[in-house]
Structures are given as C-alpha cells and as structure tokens.
Amino acid sequence: MTSFAPFSRFLCVGASAAVLALSACSLGSAQDNPAGQYTIERVTFVMRHGIRPPTKAPAIPEGYAADPWPEWPVDIGLLTPRGAQGVGLLGAADRARYVEAGLLPGSGCPPTGAITAEASWKQRAYKTGESYVAQFVPGCSIAVTHPAVEEGDILFHPPTLGKNSFDGHLAYSQALGLAPAGGIAAEVAQDADLVALLQNVLNCCAPPRCQEDGARAGCTLPDLPTALVEKKHDRPDLIGPLDIGSTASQTFLLEYLEGMPMDKVGWGRVTRDQIETLLRFHPIKFHYENGSDYVNATAAGPLMRRIVETLNAGSDGPRFALFFGHDTNLADLRALLDIDWKVESYPTGDVPPGGALGFELLRDGAGKHYVRAFFRAQTMDQLRNQVPLTGAEQPFRQEITIPGCTGPADAPVLCPLDRFEAIVAAKLAAGDVGTKAANTDG
Question: What mean pLDDT is predicted for residues 155-159?
Fold first, then answer.
C-alpha cells in the first residue's frame, strides 16, 4: 500500500476553469512518474455517513450497561449538525484536491451530468451526501438522489439478503471457516483483554440479563456466551460480548466525535486511547458477518457492479459518481476485494464516519486505462475538533494495492482496468453460485 503524496504531484498548470471541467491533467512529476503519462479521468467512491447517535434506544439492550446513555441533539440514527459540518470539511478538502488535479473547475460549476450522487434511503446517508456536495461544488445544483423506502434501496440494502433466494446456511458455514483454530471460542479467548476493558466501562450485567443470556447469576460481560448464529435467509449474527463490544465501542467513538465532554463519553470511564483500543471490536464483527465470499459477493454486488459500470462509462459518463451509505457497505466491499487500509487512530480495515473507499480511472499515454483504489478519511481528533483540512492538515489518504493485480513498473499500485474487471467478475461469481444453489434447493 502506498501513502498519499502531496497535492503538488497532481498540479495542472495554465488551464482555464472550462478546460479543467472537461479534461484531465497529467499526474506525477518527472521524478515520480518519469514518462509523465498518467491522466486522471474519473472518480467514484462509496462514503460512510457522518456522526450520528446510536440507531437504537438504548444503544445496546437493557442490562448490559449500568447507567443511562447520554442525550443527543437529534433523534436516534440521524445525522447530527456536527456530523454534517465534519462531512463538509471532507467535501472542501476533496474539492481542493480535484481542482488541483483538473477534474473540477476552480470557480463556477461543472457541466451538467459531470457529478452524480446517490445515497441510501436512511436520513443520515442522504443528508451526508447533501452536506458533502454543498462543499464539494458550492453553489451548484447537484441533487443527491435516494429511495424513499428500504425496499427500493437496491444498492445499499440489497434485496437478495433476507429473501428465500439467499442461502443462509452457506453464509453461516463459510463464516465459521473464518474463525481461528478452536473456532469462535478461540476468537473470544484471544480478545479477552478487550472484553475485560469493556466490562470496566459498561459495568455489566444486570441480573435479568445474566439469566436471559444463559449465564450464571452475578455474571459479568466475560461470562456471557459468544456464538455465531445461523439465519435461514440472511448473513449470520455474531452474538455475545464481541457483538456488544462492536456496538458499544462505536457508540463511545460517536460520543467522542460529537465533541461530548469526556465525563459524558462512556460515562467518564473510558479515555480517548481506550476508545481506540475498543474499536477493534468493530472489524471483528464485520469479519464474521460480512467476510465470507458468498455474503460479500451478494451484499456488495450491486454497488460493485455500479462502480465498474461507472469506470467504463466513457466520455458520456460522469466525472464523479458519488455514493453515500453505511459502514456495512464498505465492509462488504473491503471483504469482496480482499483489501485493507489503516486510518490513523483506527484499527486496520475500520471505517470511520465520513470514510470513503474510492476508485480513480487513469489513462496512460498509449490510451490504456488503469484503476487506482484509495481510502480517504478524517482521523478521530480531526473530526472531534472539526479541523479544517487545509495546508499541512490534510485528510488521511492511503492508496491500496488490489490483490491479484500488478501495475506498471513506475506505478505498481495501478490496476489495469480489464484486469480489475476480471477480478471483480470472478469474486461476484461466488454470490451467483450460492443463489443458484439456494434456488435449486427450493
């Protein structure tokens, strides 16, 4: 994986705003790219929504936490004003990057159709899109389209999941194979330090919770059983301390990012560095619920196909195709492509609020096209402190090597477009095989 280089590597010189809107400029200095041949033509990304409260009240079921959860300025699951502001900072930073790279005009609006924006039906997703676009192309009328209800949300909530055509047993069997030697019990054992730390913050458990979860009277969080539960027509569920830890740690993170005083964050029983430690729960849950080939091919399929279509759209396609969804969508894409990233202050593969997995289409001097994958996000403290992402204070960006794809000698992170398409097609076939099997079984 390659770290983000300074904007000066993407500078276009002597181009008017109109030309910048319609054409791209060469990437790389003579030293970084000796032939100077790569031209960026198109960008597409999938971005997680900004800061929100928990999606349920209480954040985790009664009995796991000893104290009431703090109040939020908006209802459950909605984008907060502070979340919208943080997303806007990313929009402004991305704008600066792509103005310098020549894909956006320095002033005025891009041509009609140059930017498309689609979002999940959830308010936090489409309001994130609106907040981002308002700073990415200020003063321009770019609509963020979204379905009115979940049933129409094909990209972000694939309709196959939860339906008879989805083989929940295959998903469950593959997920079990992701566990270390010794199974889920071994996973719990190797994460015992995390569970113990979470116990100190939650002060679990209320007596009814112990009985309901099949634990001894007077239990604490480490006493609760962990299991992977098969669902007939959906992805499996991870239950127990690892599941509780994923939701609770995300809640503490969101409290911190929202700028709550530290005596409110985790009831004052967790430090900023401990939040960073507890966030390891989040990718663990995604590992089992999203990580199997069948699940991620089915769940990420609609978005991944749209991304490939966008990259192949030619001169009639949008310069930017922006998608605003959820961490689950990015976790599915990550597992599908078998890629990773590591944002400063987050665990490997975790998706911060506002984090985006993107793909840039580049063309060399001979007309051959390449895909460059990247992950872009704010650090925890950039977002908590609402730091303007200008000058030396840039968002995190990491370029990602796609397994099975080798680029040119001078730019190995690039993946030839035809090879990228072949890799995606092969991985999506796993979902097709499972669906055919489920249909055959009746």
Answer: 92
Give pTM, 2 decimals: 0.90
E strands, 113-260, where? 115-119, 144-145, 227-229, 237-239
Q: Which of 261, 276, 49, 8 is nearest to 146 (CA)?
A: 49
Cα 368–chain centre separation: 29
Q: Residue 372: helix, strand or coil by DSSP?
A: strand
How many other C-beta atoms can be found within 10 angstroms of the C-beta atom of residue 73?
11
Give the residue among 332, 121, 433 at the shortest CA–CA distance from 129. Answer: 121
* Distance, CA of 52 to CA of 50 (rounded, Å): 6
CB 253 within 8 A of CB 387: no
Token pair 């140059």 in the structure block, residue? 114
Encoded tokens for 93: 């930073």
Q: In the chain, how long is the greatest CA-to-CA distance?
A: 74
How confident is the model over 13-56, as pLDDT tens digits? Answer: 223 332 333 333 334 333 344 344 899 999 999 999 999 999 99
Residue 433 confidence class, pLDDT cut points 50, 70, 90: low
Contact between residue 383 and residue 335 where contact means Cβ atoms under 8 Å apart: no
316 Cβ contact partners less than 8 Å away, ≥ 6 residues apart: none
**What is the Cα–Cα distance from 367 to 370, expressed in whole angstroms?**
10
